[in-house]
Design brief:
FAD/NAD(P)-binding domain; 23 strands; alpha/beta; about 550 residues; 3 domains; Polyamine Oxidase, Chain A, domain 2; 4-stranded antiparallel beta sheet
């Protein structure tokens, strides 16, 4: 191992959080290396041309959660990042009707009244509740989660901040907040709305990427997690990164490179190297080793400590807690190349809501039955999907006159049951095709000519996502977003500050606070903690004190 193999900090995994951490550390003057198992960067935020002429956002597919503070800090637009908002969306029924979700307030009220006059004011109350919760939680996204058992000054400071913010809510709102974080999205919507169709449209955000059903406690918070982002200052708005989600990772990579960072692709971490309770570097699968006094893992907590860390270097209680952490695969994905824009007979020609997210599930009961299939180890026979055609807004995704469609599907199990046996290897090509056919059957309810438009389709199961991206069970959040796995409990009580039982080793991915999605907050928060501790210790070579 030569001098060139020694760094101030090494980051395992070039997903967007790992890249974010790398950017902040490199900008602070550290000599930073990022190692990545794939031949490309981005993790789940990637753009890949898997069919000639078409670019797929083949894992994550829409942008909203990315924190504007981080975009501003790292000047990501300078490196090509452009987020284009889309307006509205729709849920189609089997009988040729639809519910259109408009970004225009008055248009939305008229559409709600078309289905249920009583739900017009109910939607106002629903929106006010969700926005209040968003405003409460958003200040915590770029702060450490305090450890309530710690007497450390920083934990006490963060705990006081939490207490003050909570106290400012008032007694009634505190009760409502605690209830909101633990109630099911189904119960929450049933309390507000009469229309089954409106409830079904809104419920999707409570189950996407989650191994829970609409009546499972905690799914109202999952909806909040999807609503807490913004595009151009509009809370809850969504948009497309021009060029696909890989544009976010590419901008972060360019920022990191300009700050002097190094990225090595093509081989993942085989083992984190530890001596005397301190991390010393990483050994890669190809046999290369690199040393550093700081090592950060962008992998999820289970993959980091159960697959790539010697158990002898960890306390037994910590390992047991990691094993209890819930990471369940529940989502599939179809990326589709289309030779033309498909027809939507129920929609007015040129309707703007066709440029947003589209669904075909019309009741909470239908969504709960889809979850029942998943619990039995089957893909849902009547699935929920979140379908978009981003090439309508971003024409760079497909050749002229052609289109790209992305379909996110609930539910698909990681361990598919076949002949009474559940395992990921049961996802054979035949079963992938059968899964895709089930999804296309559902799409045909709103888009009857879809199959005739398909030029190419990539089918991704949770097992496929795990193998390519490295997300345990293909879970897009690196761990369920339930109340028992949030704040100071994420990922393990006592270790919510991005540190680990191994001195100098950190977690920077979505297994940590504040959770998953292309948010970059875990990576930025972890970088702040790493730099704070580096300043307290002996100055390192390359570190700008």
């Amino acid at each position: 191992m030569g001098a060139q193999d020694r760094y101030d900090a090494i980051i395992a995994g070039a997903g967007h959080n790992g890249l974010t951490t790398g950017c902040y550390l490199a900008k602070a003057g550290l000599k930073v290396l990022i190692v990545e198992k794939n031949d490309w960067i981005g993790g789940a935020a990637v753009s890949r041309m898997l069919h000639n002429g078409w670019t797929y956002s083949n894992c994550s597919y829409v942008c909203s959660l990315l924190r504007r503070e981080i975009v501003r800090d790292l000047e990501l637009p300078k490196y090509g990042l452009q987020v284009i908002p889309y307006e509205g969306g729709a849920t189609f029924t089997r009988d040729g009707d639809y519910f259109a979700y408009h970004s225009d307030h008055d248009a939305l009220r008229r559409e709600i009244a078309r289905h249920s006059p009583a739900d017009v004011d109910a939607y106002t109350r629903f929106s006010q509740t969700v926005i209040r919760q968003c405003r409460f939680i958003r200040p915590f996204l770029l702060r450490n989660a305090p450890d309530p058992t710690s007497l450390a000054p920083r934990d006490l400071q963060e705990l006081l901040y939490l207490v003050k913010k909570t106290h400012d809510l008032g007694a009634r709102e505190i009760g409502e907040t605690l209830r909101f974080w633990t109630v099911s999205i189904g119960d929450f919507l049933d309390e507000h709305f009469e229309s089954d169709l409106i409830k079904a449209h809104l419920a999707g955000s409570g189950i996407i990427g989650t191994g829970l059903g609409v009546y499972s406690p905690g799914t109202a918070y999952v909806l909040l997690h999807h609503y807490m982002g913004d595009v151009d200052g509009a809370i809850g708005a969504w948009g497309f990164a021009r060029g696909g989600m890989g544009a976010i990772s590419n901008a972060l990579g360019a920022c990191f490179n300009e700050a002097g960072g190094t990225i090595v692709t093509g081989s993942g971490v085989d083992k984190f190297l530890v001596e005397g309770g301190k991390v010393t570097g990483v050994a890669l699968e190809n046999g290369d080793t690199y040393s550093a006094p700081i090592v950060a893992s962008n992998m999820d907590v289970k993959r980091t400590f159960l697959n790539h860390t010697d158990a002898a270097d960890l306390p037994d209680s910590f390992t047991r807690a990691v094993k209890r952490f819930k990471i369940r695969g529940s989502s599939g994905k179809l990326n589709i190349a289309l030779d033309a824009l498909p027809e939507f007979p129920a929609a007015p020609k040129g309707a703007n809501f066709l440029r947003g997210d589209m669904h075909c599930s019309t009741s909470l009961q239908e969504l709960e039955r889809a979850y029942d299939d998943w619990k039995e180890g089957r893909w849902s026979q009547d699935p929920y999907f979140d379908m978009l055609i981003p090439s309508q807004i971003d024409p760079t995704m497909a050749p002229p006159g052609k289109h790209m469609m992305t379909v996110f599907v609930q539910y698909a199990p990681y361990d598919l049951e076949v002949d009474g046996v559940r395992k990921g290897e049961n996802w054979t090509d035949a079963n992938r095709k059968a899964f895709a056919d089930t999804v296309f059957d559902k799409i045909e309810q709103c888009c009857p000519d879809i199959r005739s438009r398909v030029v190419h389709a990539e089918v991704r199961t949770p097992w496929d996502i795990e193998r390519e991206v490295g997300l345990t069970e293909g879970n897009i959040f690196q761990g369920e977003l339930t109340f028992d796995q949030l704040l100071f409990n994420r990922p393990v009580p006592g270790y919510a500050n991005y540190a680990t039982p191994i001195d100098g080793m950190y977690l920077v991915g979505s297994s940590t606070h504040p959770g998953g999605g292309v948010m970059a907050a875990p990576g930025a928060n972890a970088a702040r903690e790493i730099l704070r501790k580096a300043k307290k210790g002996r100055p390192m070579k390359g570190y700008a004190a």
